[in-house]
Design brief:
With 254 residues, the protein is an alpha/beta fold. The protein contains seven helices and ten strands. The protein binds adenosine-5'-triphosphate (ATP).
């Protein structure tokens, strides 16, 4: 399928400012997320990753600036079946089986009847297709949520820490799936506070304290900072950041 690789970015934010609980948590962010690639959104816990993702899918009140998604304002009705969003908390029904959940969401979305089987296979849950979701492990439940987001083959997937709590084999399988989806033309924006996932992304957005610290390919960020890994690159960028006000994170920037 051709989603228009090389055309306008999937996401364009300009001057995005968000206030939560009376505090500015996003400070005028400017960023682009291209189509046909995996963009990693990395930064310490509380830096504003989820708030940015919420703004992109249109469920966050925005105090200033604008966010355009697939050529329409974020949250537009026209985007409903073109954007898949997976939150950190699995949002599926425990008292239904995996297949029943996905048939339900497919019906709501108007996705093809063959989609539930396809997405269950994509997330590696075929052997559990008839299990009640309440009886699955946390990682399996998270994959049911991801499968729901894949229904209808969205052009943009917004995934909030999709690999948390998964074992290394499953994490590798999911990153392979993300790569396949991007190769098929979809845009993926994947948040993580695990810096070692950075090298699996085509591009990175590094965030800190509600600001974009840097954007570029992993190789560019390593070159720019002279660091040998993204963890060290992040720390070098924090040290160079004129807006840095808080204490430096220690070895684990989570
Ligand atoms: N419902 C809320 N009301 C007020 N402030 C909030 C709310 N949710 C989050 N915040 C604040 O907004 C800031 C950004 O939070 P956000 O959840 O976007 O961070 P994050 O980078 O996604 O963190 P994590 O990696 O831990 O999920 C934090 O300072 C947080 O305390």
């Amino acid at each position: 399928m051709n989603y228009g690789v090389g055309s306008a970015p999937a996401i364009r934010a300009a001057g995005l400012t968000v206030v939560r609980g009376g505090r500015t948590v996003l400070h005028g962010l400017d960023l682009d997320v291209p189509r046909g690639s995996v963009t990693g959104l990395l930064g310490p816990s509380g830096c504003g990753k989820t708030t940015l993702l919420r703004s992109i899918v249109g469920v966050q009140r925005v105090a200033g600036g604008r966010v355009e998604v697939l050529g329409s304002p974020a949250g537009s009705a026209a985007l409903r079946d073109r954007v898949g969003y997976v939150t950190q908390a699995p949002s599926v029904y425990g008292d239904l089986s995996v297949t029943e959940n996905l048939r339900y969401f497919a019906a709501v979305l108007g996705a093809p009847p063959s989609d539930p089987g396809r997405v269950i296979a994509q997330v590696g849950l075929t052997a559990h297709a008839h299990a009640l979701v309440a009886r699955l492990s946390g990682g399996q439940r998270a994959r049911v949520s991801l499968a729901a987001a894949l229904l209808g083959t969205p052009e943009l997937l917004v995934l909030d820490e999709p690999t948390v709590g998964l074992d290394p084999v499953l994490r590798q399988d999911l990153w392979q799936l993300f790569r396949q989806l991007a190769d098929g033309g979809a845009a993926l924006l994947v948040s993580s506070h695990v810096m070692d996932e950075a090298t699996r992304c085509d591009r990175l957005l590094l965030m800190r304290d509600g600001r974009l610290l840097a954007a570029g390919t992993p190789a560019e960020l390593l070159r720019r900072t002279g660091a040998s890994d993204i963890d060290s690159a992040f720390l070098a960028l924090v040290a160079q950041d004129p807006d840095a006000t808080a204490a430096l994170p220690t070895g684990d920037p989570s």
